[in-house]
Structures are given as structure tokens and as C-alpha cells.
Write a structure and sequence with these properties.
One of its GO terms (biological process) is vesicle-mediated transport. This is Tfp pilus assembly protein PilF. Keywords: Repeat, TPR repeat. It holds the Pfam family ChAPs. It comes from Desulfonauticus submarinus. The longest helix is centred in the middle third of the chain and has 22 residues. With about 725 residues, the protein is an alpha+beta fold. It is built from 26 helices and 22 strands. A six-stranded antiparallel β-sheet has the order 12-13-16-15-14-17. It has five domains: about 100 residues, no CATH class; about 170 residues, Alpha-Beta Plaits (2-Layer Sandwich); about 80 residues, FlgT, C-terminal domain (Thrombin, subunit H, Beta Barrel), CATH 2.40.10.410; about 90 residues, Reverse transcriptase/Diguanylate cyclase domain (Alpha-Beta Plaits, 2-Layer Sandwich), CATH 3.30.70; about 150 residues, Serine Threonine Protein Phosphatase 5, Tetratricopeptide repeat (Alpha Horseshoe), CATH 1.25.40.10.
Length: about 725
């Protein structure tokens, strides 16, 4: 096989300027001179005649011709004449070899497919510009501002998800993109950065102009119609775009490093911004990463969260972030985070004021840097409420009764007006702005009087501004609670206030407040913390049936069936018609083997939801006794009461499967999977039917795999999959 080496690319006049240092070094190896000047006349001067070298007494003129194209002219001064004597005839050939060398050198910097410079050239070019900027007399790292015009901007433009595009089409799109960029980015340089990313460099633009350039570039690439080369159909494309500016976006201490390190740092910051651009589908500068590029990655115990930006993005201890309800920067605020731990690429912080329950923070929520000043945190226990609690301690020691009120509104612009109204109406002993649009205050009157005053404030504020206030009130003395619980209790009361469907949105800390808090912990599967919270709720109100029933559900989940039974019975002693407790007691009695008592509970259920599920369990108990006919009746009743639920169909299918009526079982399983394609029990049962009939085994294996992926904790599902795989293996052999 013959492998042909690629021919060197054409040289241009611009290349002579770009590679003049290499040109000078190469010529100096055999022509000793001290000065070299480059000229670019439109045509080759006539004094050369048919030659490329013309000698004068103190200088040499060299015409640079490559592939029959005139590129420019060199003038070498202060050369050594005695060195030239033996080279005059060989000089034309030597100069041609030097130009060939330049062409090969250019090839190492050229992307041959796209015909633009590659990453190697970007690196060399960028380091050269950075060195030039840092060597300026006016360059002072400690006194830079946005008007420092000697700047260098690195822009990266990425074609997102290129794996969905064929390689040939990918190159075609990039050629279209480069044509567009050459129009929009002239006279700036364009480079290939990686297989799916281009780089653009800007020099000597103000911060304002470079941001405007980035914005216009984003609009251009996203409004351009990329089309298929043959069908001319529009191609679906998505881009990520990011920019970092040198020296403005780098740390002052790093600006003393060499150009190689500074370019590396510039790249890392731009790549970080590029990731955020891809996530949020909007252009990003490096400073924007900390301003609005963070996301919650984990919800941690004790009202803590983890976020995906860290010290490399400029996050430090004490930074405050607002949690947005969606990816739009003008969306509702869910709450606020204060950072107390930072790592390179992530940080952790405390959720200091969760907002409305329906706006509770969740994974992937976007963050926005708060306009409030950073909190000085030398110790993670020092939080905004620290001063509030310190003052509360002083007043409680004096008065022996105290109320802590949290007042929250939706617009930070109202803060000044609201603070004045709070002072005039409530006359608090102490007031403090806690966080975004939230005030904390201390009063030393009785709880009911505090509530009355707060209602007056809420009414006045609504009449004046038509804006809602959310108010949570906690107080001492109260049962087993201590001063250290006061602020957290006020937070829970504030969350309770958000549950009301109409104003006034005000809650005085009580048993219901704790039940709401416990429900939240239960949903997060923090079972033992939830138990403690429900028990505290019952200390305040022993007849709180919501707390009693929920305690029973948790104990049942933990396998404490006798304790769960006790909780449900206590609930029914207070409220005999409490349907959730009736149903839950029935399920618990079933698990304890007390089926007759369970049936008695089930039959007392009256609403379609609980009655429908009660019929399912009644039918299952009869099915276990092989009373097929009566079990079927209950399943059909459940099907009527739960028309969109797949479970009655799955139960009916299982009933027919046990009677070897597979065609009927398949009919009901198809019905179940139409209602819920992720019904793991239906998927597993259909796989069992196919296994028993020894047909559709590939489909059976797929169904069994799906059921295992949905419910990996069910041993029977794994057993079904194992049997099908063994049979498939036997058939292959």
C-alpha cells in the first residue's frame, strides 16, 4: 500500500508576517545579518528581473515566491559579504527550502479539513499576546478596571451533542459555521479548539464591547439556518458559547505568572463557563458562572445543600445565593443559601430561609448570587440569626416571655417601606433584616397579642401595596422547647403560613406546624427525625389525628407493626370515621395475619380511593384461599372505583394466571400496561406467562429486565429473569 504524504498548504503574505521569527532564524543559519525588514509591494519590483535575489553594497533584497505566487520582499542589512561568496548560486534553492519549511510549519498549525488555524497555533498566538500585555509599562495588576483596553478575550463556541450528526455532515455544518463567523468576526481570528469546538480571540476591546460582541454572536449562530447539503432540510443544532477576558477575569495574584500559566488559567475558566452555557442554553462569561450559573446537586440533612460551583468559580465562605424556582433569572425565589464549605468544583451551605412549601428547593434548582453583602464566617455556626438569638437571650432573661417573628414578602424593593411599618405598628424590641426580603423581630408580649398586632400589620400592608406578607410566630415559654429552638420554630411557622389558601398568611407555632414539618421529613425519608417531630406535635396536642396516623405509617414502614397498630387505634379512638387510619389499620392487621379484623376495617371505607384499594386487599386474601370467584368480584369492583389505576388489572391477570388461563391473563396485563407502562408487577407477570408458554422469550427477557430495573429489591423478579436467561441459553446451545 502506498501512503501519500499531504502536500504543504499554500503560503500567504500574512504567513510571512506570522512566521517572520522562524524565517529570520532559518536565514541567519547561512546568511549572517543583524537587520531584516519585510515589505509587501503589489507586484515584484522590476530590479529583480528574472531572479529572486538582488545584491546592493550594504543590503540584500530577496523576493519571496512560493508556487509561482509573489508573497513579499525581504531586505537584509548589515550582512557579512565574505559569507555570501560561495552561496550565491545556491541561495535561490535555499530560500525555496526555507519557504517549504514555513509551509510545513504552517501545516502543524492548520486544521486541514476546515482550513483554519488549530489549537497549536491558538496556544502560540495567545501566549504571545498575553506576554505583550503583561510587558506593557501601564500594566498594573492591582489597579485594572473595565477601561483597560489592552485586553485579550478567549471565546469558545461548541456544537453540542455532535454524536447525533454523521461525521461528514458535522464537517459540513462546521464549514457553514466558519463562513458565518468569518463574516461576523472579521478581523478577529478563528481556530479549531477541539473536535466540536471553535475558538475566537478578541484583542483590545473594552469589557462592554466584548460582552456586546458575545451577545451578537450568540444571536447569529442561533438564528442561522443550517441546512442539509442534499435535501436542504433545516438541521437541528444547539451551541454553547463562553468567554473569559484577560486580564479582567483572572485573580490579581495570578497575573504575576508567566504567559504559559495564564493561558492555561484562561482556558480552564472559559471551559467552566462553556459547561454552564451548555446547561442553561445561554451565553456565559466567566464572572456569570458565580452570578447565576450554580445549581443544587444534593439536598443534605439539617437544611443543608450542595451546589456545583466552588472556589474555581470564585465561591468563598459567606457567599449568599438565592434559589430560583426555574432556570429563568426573573423567576420566583424559593429560598436562600449561605455557603460555609468550599471545594474546587463544589460548595456546601445552609438553607437559611426555605420559602413556600410548594417552592421547596430541589436538585437542579438554579442559583443567583444575592445582592446582599457576604457574611463574615470564621466559624460555620455564625449565621444571620446569631445576633437575633443573642438579643432574644438578653430579653428572655429579663422578661421571661418572648416572641420571635419572621416576616417575609416577595419583593426586596419593599424592604425600606416594610421596615418602617413594622416599627410603627409592632414596635419590636429588636429588628434585623435576615435575608432576601425577610425580617426577624423580637417582641416581649403574649403570643395572642403578638398575633393580633401582626394581623394588623398584614392588613395595613395589603391595603397599601396589594402585596402579600407571610408571617411565622414562635414564642417562649412553650412546653419542652428551649431558647435554642426559637428561631427554627419561627421558620417552621413561616413555612406553615404558606399552606393557607388565602390571606392572612400567618401562622402561630403549634402542633399543626410540627406536623407539616414532620411530613416534609417523612417525604425525604428521614424517618427517625420525622418520628421525633410528630411526637413533639402530640406533646402540644395529644388529639392531633394527622400526627398519630402519620406516626403509624412510619412505624409500619420500619416494620414496627404492633406500634403502628397502636397508633392507628389511637387515631380511631379520637376520630372513628378517619378513613386513612381505617385503611392503614386494615393493611397493618393483614400483615399481622389478623385478616378478619382487617376485613372489618376495609369494609368501613367509603371514598372511591380507599374503598378501591380496600377491595384489592380483600380480593387478595380470598385469592390466597383459592376462592377465585369472590376474589374476582372484589377485583372488578376495585377496577370500577380505580379506572385509571393499573393494579386491579394486574391482580385480575394474576388470578387467571394461577388458574392457567393465560390468554385471559395476557388480556388484563396488556390493559394494565396501557394504563401504566412502568407497572413492575405487570411486566414481571407477563414475562412469567411467556416463560410458561415457552414463547416470545426475547420479549420475556426484556420485560423481566425492565421489572428488575424498576423494583430491584424484589427477589422474585430476579428469579424470573434468571429462569428466562437460562432457557434462552439452552435454546442457543
Amino acid at each position: 500500500m502506498i501512503v501519500l504524504l499531504p502536500s504543504p498548504p499554500d503560503l500567504t503574505s500574512k504567513d510571512i508576517l506570522t512566521f517572520q521569527k522562524i524565517l529570520k532564524q532559518s536565514l541567519n543559519q547561512f546568511l549572517k545579518f543583524s537587520e531584516m525588514h519585510i515589505f509587501f509591494p503589489n507586484v515584484k519590483p522590476s530590479f529583480f528581473k528574472n531572479k529572486i535575489i538582488f545584491f546592493e553594497q550594504d543590503r540584500i533584497h530577496i523576493a519571496l515566491e512560493y508556487k509561482q505566487k509573489f508573497l513579499g520582499m525581504l531586505v537584509l542589512k548589515k550582512y557579512s559579504p565574505h559569507k555570501i561568496k560561495g552561496l550565491k548560486t545556491a541561495l535561490p534553492h535555499l530560500i525555496h527550502l526555507i519557504l517549504e519549511k514555513l509551509a510545513l510549519y504552517k501545516m502543524s498549525f492548520l486544521d486541514k479539513e476546515l482550513n483554519i488555524y488549530n489549537y497549536n497555533y491558538l496556544k502560540m498566538f495567545s501566549q504571545k499576546i498575553i506576554s505583550a500585555i503583561t510587558s506593557l509599562d501601564v500594566f498594573n495588576p492591582t489597579s485594572l478596571n473595565d477601561n483597560f483596553y489592552s485586553s485579550f478575550d478567549l471565546i469558545l463556541l461548541k456544537l453540542v451533542k455532535p454524536d447525533k450528526i454523521s461525521p461528514s455532515l458535522y464537517t459540513y455544518i462546521f464549514n457553514q459555521l466558519i463562513s458565518l463567523l468569518k463574516q461576523k468576526c472579521s478581523p478577529w481570528s478563528i481556530f479549531t479548539y477541539s473536535i466540536n469546538t471553535l475558538a475566537i480571540t478578541l484583542t483590545n476591546l473594552s469589557s462592554k464591547k466584548s460582552k456586546l460582541f458575545l451577545k451578537n454572536l450568540w444571536e447569529s449562530v442561533n438564528t442561522f439556518n443550517f441546512s442539509h447539503p442534499i435535501s436542504k432540510q433545516p438541521l437541528s443544532t444547539q451551541f454553547a458559547l463562553a468567554m473569559t477576558s484577560f486580564p479582567h477575569h483572572l485573580k490579581i495574584k495570578d497575573l504575576k505568572e508567566d504567559a504559559k500559566y495564564l493561558f492555561f488559567d484562561l482556558q480552564q475558566k472559559t471551559l467552566l463557563a462553556l459547561q454552564k452555557s451548555e446547561i442553561f442554553n445561554e451565553p456565559f462569561t466567566y464572572p456569570k458562572v458565580i452570578q447565576c450559573g450554580g445549581k443544587i446537586t444534593a439536598l443534605l440533612p439539617l437544611n443543608r445543600v450542595k451546589i456545583d460551583i466552588g472556589s474555581t468559580s470564585g465561591v468563598t465562605k459567606g457567599k449568599r445565593f438565592l434559589i430560583l424556582s426555574n432556570s429563568q433569572l426573573d423567576s420566583k425565589i424559593k429560598g436562600e443559601i449561605i455557603i460555609d464549605k468550599t471545594y474546587n468544583r463544589s460548595s456546601e451551605g445552609k438553607l437559611i430561609l426555605p420559602n413556600a412549601p410548594y417552592l421547596t428547593p430541589s436538585i437542579h434548582d438554579r442559583l443567583k448570587l444575592s445582592s446582599q453583602p457576604d457574611l463574615e464566617i470564621s466559624n460555620p455556626t455564625i449565621w444571620p440569626e446569631h445576633e437575633l438569638l443573642k438579643k432574644a437571650q438578653e430579653l428572655y432573661n429579663q422578661k421571661k416571655q418572648i416572641g420571635l417573628v419572621l416576616i417575609k414578602h416577595s419583593e426586596q424593593s419593599l424592604n425600606l417601606d416594610l421596615e418602617e411599618k413594622i416599627k410603627s405598628i409592632l414596635r419590636p424590641s429588636y429588628i434585623q433584616e435576615i435575608s432576601f426580603s425577610t425580617f426577624g423581630l423580637i417582641l416581649t408580649t403574649l403570643p395572642e397579642k403578638i398575633k393580633k398586632q401582626c394581623l394588623k400589620l398584614e392588613k395595613h400592608f395589603w391595603e397599601q401595596s396589594k402585596k402579600h406578607l407571610y408571617i411565622g410566630i414562635a414564642y417562649l415559654p412553650l412546653a419542652q422547647f428551649k431558647l435554642t429552638d426559637l428561631y427554627l420554630n419561627a421558620q417552621k411557622a413561616l413555612e406553615h403560613a404558606h399552606y393557607f389558601s388565602k390571606r392572612p398568611f400567618l401562622a402561630l407555632f403549634d402542633s399543626t406546624t410540627l406536623t407539616i414539618s414532620a411530613d416534609k421529613l417523612f417525604k425525604l425519608k428521614n424517618f427517625y427525625e420525622a418520628i421525633s417531630e410528630y411526637q413533639n406535635a402530640l406533646l402540644l396536642d395529644p388529639k392531633n389525628v394527622l400526627a398519630l396516623n402519620s406516626l403509624g405509617v412510619i412505624y409500619a414502614s420500619l416494620g414496627e407493626l404492633h406500634t403502628a397498630k397502636e397508633m392507628f387505634i389511637k387515631t380511631l379512638n379520637i376520630d372513628p370515621k378517619n378513613e386513612p387510619a381505617l385503611y392503614n389499620l386494615g393493611r397493618t392487621l393483614d400483615k399481622l395475619g389478623e385478616h378478619q379484623q382487617a376485613a372489618s376495617c376495609y369494609l368501613k371505607c367509603v371514598t372511591p380511593h380507599y374503598k378501591g384499594y380496600a377491595y384489592l386487599w380483600l380480593g387478595l386474601n380470598l385469592e390466597k384461599q383459592h376462592n377465585w370467584s369472590k376474589a374476582k368480584q372484589y377485583y372488578l369492583k376495585a377496577q370500577n372505583l380505580l379506572p385509571t389505576n393499573s393494579q386491579p388489572d394486574t391482580f385480575l391477570a394474576n388470578l387467571y394466571f394461577q388458574q392457567n388461563k393465560n390468554s385471559k391473563a395476557i388480556e388484563y396485563l396488556h390493559s394494565a400496561l396501557l394504563k401504566n407502562s412502568n407497572d413492575a408487577w405487570a411486566l414481571n407477570l407477563l414475562a412469567k406467562v411467556y416463560l410458561q408458554e415457552n414463547k416470545n422469550l426475547k420479549i420475556a427477557e426484556s420485560l423481566a429486565r425492565h421489572s428488575v430495573s424498576l423494583k430491584p429489591e424484589i427477589p422474585d423478579f430476579w428469579e424470573t429473569l434468571k429462569k428466562i436467561q437460562q432457557l434462552n441459553k439452552t435454546l442457543v446451545n
